[in-house]
Design goal:
By secondary structure, the chain is of the alpha/beta class. The protein has a single domain (3-109), classed as Dna Topoisomerase Vi A Subunit, Chain: A, domain 2, CATH 3.40.1360.10. The chain is 55% helix and 12% strand.
């Protein structure tokens, strides 16, 4: 699957997506995604509980810096303990198949690299 196909799939499925900040959320909303949960300094256990109350699966799109990787690992472990499946496939695609390292740049990256 290429980037355009991934974006279309996510827009069609509208999964819950956890992101770090407002700019990350803005980038995803610009692509047509709606179910976005912001970390924004909130305690991670409250995020985990909120997500577990809302759904049984989600995506975690934290940045690929040291802090983002740490947040990702902590969230994934907490969510799995609450029986929430974390779908890593889009995250892996982004960080393996693109030069993106920060979620806030996703909408711009899609505009520049779209094959539509």
């Amino acid at each position: 699957m290429n980037l355009d196909e991934w974006i279309l799939k996510l827009v069609r499925e509208q999964p819950f997506i956890i992101v770090e900040g407002v700019k990350d959320k803005r980038a995803l909303v610009a692509l047509g995604l709606k179910k976005i949960i912001l970390l924004q300094g909130r305690p991670l256990f409250t995020i985990v509980e909120e997500v577990a109350d809302l759904t049984n699966s989600c995506l975690i799109l934290t940045d690929l810096d040291a802090e983002g990787k740490k947040l990702y690992a902590t969230l994934k472990k907490g969510l799995q303990r609450h029986k929430v499946k974390v779908d890593d496939s889009f995250r892996h695609f982004l960080f393996k198949e693109t030069t993106l390292r920060h979620v806030e740049g996703l909408a711009t990256y899609v505009d520049q690299h779209s094959i539509r």
